Structure formats: C-alpha cells, structure tokens
Amino acid sequence: MTDNPACPVFGDLGLPEKIVEKLAQSGVTTPFPIQAATIPDALAGRDVLGCGRTGSGKTLAFGLPLLVRAGERRAAPRRPRSLVLVPTRELAHQVRDALLPYARVLGVNVGDVVGGSSYTRQINELRRGVEVLVATPGRLSDLIEQGACELDDVGISVLDEADQMCDMGFMPQVSELLDQVRPGGQTLLFSATLDGDVDKLVRRYMNEPQTHSVDPPVSHVTTMEHHLLKVLPRDKNRIVTEIAARDGRTILFVRSKYRADTISEQLVNAGVPAASLHGGKTQSVRTKTLAKFREGRIQALVATDVAARGIHVDGIDLVVNVDLPTGHKDYLHRGGRTARAGESGRVVSLVAPNQRRMARRLLGDAGVDAKQHLVNPGDELLSEVTGAREPSWEPWIEPPEPERPRRGRGNGGPRQRRNGYGGGRPRGERRSFGERDDRRGREGGGEFRAREQRGEQGRRFDGERRPYRDDARGGAPRGGGRGGYRGDRQGSGAPRS
Questions:
Q1: Where are the stretches annotated Disordered (predicted)?
Q2: Bridge partners, residue 189, by sequence
Q3: Which of 285, 309, 340, 483 is deepest in the core (most CB within 10 A)?
C-alpha cells in the first residue's frame, strides 16, 4: 500500500492544460493527497484502489482522469463509454455537478441515471449519447432491462463509496452490471473501508490494482472533535431544539423517516429554520431541500442514514446524532459530513443512561476517543460544546421563494391567448355562447346554454363519454356536430352505453 505525498500543482500529474487552467480558475491549484496519488495511475490506464475518508477529494481523483480518457472518442447512442456507480441519488448529483465544469472544457457529455427522476429525460439523454454516465445501480438496471442502455462499450468503470453500496445491499446488482462492461477494461474503486464484500469486488473485477491509502480505513479525522452528551430522556427534545437553534449549519441524524419529520416539525414550531431529508420524499423535494440548506435558507437539516453519504455541503461544522447509528461505519459516514477538505468540525452524540455502554462500544469500534459530558437544558457547558442557545419559540414561517420572470412576455402587457381564439382578449372578458357557437359553424347558442345549465359541459359521467370541450378548441366536434360527444360515429346526441 502506497502513500504518495501531495504534488505542488495539478500540472505535474499529467492532466491536459485545459483542465489545469480550469482548476486554477476555480481556485484549485494544489491537489489533495488522494488526488496526487491516484491521478497519474488512472491516466495511465491502471486499475486503482483508493482508500480514504469521505471529503478527502475522491471525486476529482477519479473524475478528472475519467473525463480525459472517456473524451478520446464520442459515445454512440445508448452506449456510454464510462460508468460511475454510486449508492445514492444525492451522491450521483454531487458527482455529476462536480464533473460538469471540466467536462465542458473537454467537450464531454455527462449524464446521470437515478431513481426518483423522469425516465423519459434519462432515456432521451442516453439516446443522444453520453461519454460519462453517473448512475445508481437500481435505476440503471431498470433502463438496461428496457433496452434503453447497453454497457458493452464501457471501458472505464468507477465504484464510488463501494462499502456503502455493499452495506445497502447493492452487491448483486453491482456485480451484474460489471459483468456487462467491456472485458479487460479499467476499474477504479474508492471506499472508506476495504473489508467484506468490497474485498470480493476487488478480487473479482480488478487486475493488479495500484492501491493508495491516505487515511486509515476506520480512524477518526484529526480535525474532528467527538463528544458524548449524557442526557435524561425527559430533557432530550429540549436539548435537541437548543442545539439546532445555534448559529451555523447543523445536521441532525435520526433513525427513521417518522422521527425526521417529527423532529423537523418540532424545530420549526420552536422558531428554527429546519427541514427533513429522507428516502420517503420525492427526488425533487430532496433536491430543493438540499439547495435551501446549501444556500442558508434553512440552518438545521434532520436526516436519516440514507442521506449520510449524499449530503456534500461546505461549512457544516456540527453533526448531531440524535439517535445512535446501528454500527461504527454509519457513525463514520455521518461524521463525514463535517470536517471536510481539511476543515474542522464536531460530532455530538446524545445518549440516555441505558445507552451509554452501547455508545462506548460503538465509538471504540470506530476508533474514536470522545469526550463525555453530563448536560441539562440551558447549561453553559451545553452551549460551550455545541453552541446551543435558546430558540425564539415563535413558529418559523418559510418565506416564499422569489418569483422568476416569465419568458416570452412583453413589457407588462396582457398575455396573448394561444387557445385558438386569435388575438389577445382582456383578462376576464368572455365570449358569449352565441359567439362561441358561431365560431364552430353552429346556428345559435341554445344547445350549449341548455347543456351548461344541466351541468354537462366538460364533465365525465359514469358510463358516458367525455363531452366535447367547446371552450378549448377551435373546430367543430366530430360526428358532424350532433350531440357534442367526441368520436361519436353514430352522430347521435345520446351517449354510448
């Protein structure tokens, strides 16, 4: 196992000048140790096994060589040239967004395939051709079964957060997907730990990998403080609220979706800008919630473990384990949301008297030496350790999002209708029944007035066909205008039984 020192600049790693210039424009000039160690081997086409903690710079470590090598030839429709497998939707979006600025410089198309998003968009993206495909195993398997994607052109495969994918039960799907890629291709595997199923993946799919480890697999980060707060059950909710009311971004981890929603509602009612994040929410809601957290519109995020690997937000200086995780790996993954890229941070775990033995065993397995404190609501010690403070106790009301200007509008004039009536009519002014009937080649408006009085226009009745929606179309109804039922070949006014 090697441990290469960091190079002074990215230009020494063999990357194209375009990439180096783009990195400099982004203020990135000195590579992290994992980047300096793995990029030269990845560019040379060797298999790479990278072991390091979350937040150590692994995305660019595999992403930059991936873009360079995948951009050598255009991808055919439905046949990506490289594949990045990740465990969660949030991590997929994180990887995609991190690679896009450099992909544009090289003219490389990057696509993503994740659950909770539109199948149509993803299928159309694959049809246009993508050189780099970032995917979660479940959705990619679905699209392959539908014939929307084939992997036999994939020459470079990346497994990011491989241990998390195995822990989440993706091992069979990952193996099935890797069996479909081009034989003899390059494989890059990055993981915080290298035991169990990860070791099986390494032995099965990697050929003499160059192994680089920049951190011990199960050690704590030196810039991260760990604290064990002993609390009484009756005080726990109050203490959680005071911690969440602190200045700065805070992530609070709980064990279930119900707990996440309940605690976030508790915080909002106490005046804390907060929201919950878990697998029960739609992808659009999860994306918007993370954006609000990243932009500072909410300061406390209550999340389940499914989000532990997908939350990549700068400036998080406190992680709170409201509920203890089930294992030491989950503890490390939760803590990895803070102290990223050399920054400092704190991890605080709340334990009741009957949980103290389990908590000490959990921290011991994680290789963490935590300071222990006995705290009560309003304690100065609680404020000193976490920054807790008294909330306002006035329910927080989320301000409305600013309205975006509509495209294609004039300078404040009324919107022009596009429904077949021709020129714009002032809002609120309606055509008379006779006028509408005349536009459809009818004699008078009595028939339509009678139908509207009966409440029939535009409704669907049990056992009947939908009446023709006369106010939304510009032509006569089918069937010669008799009866007003769409597609009535008999021309009768009576509905089909």
A1: 379-497
A2: 49, 159
A3: 309
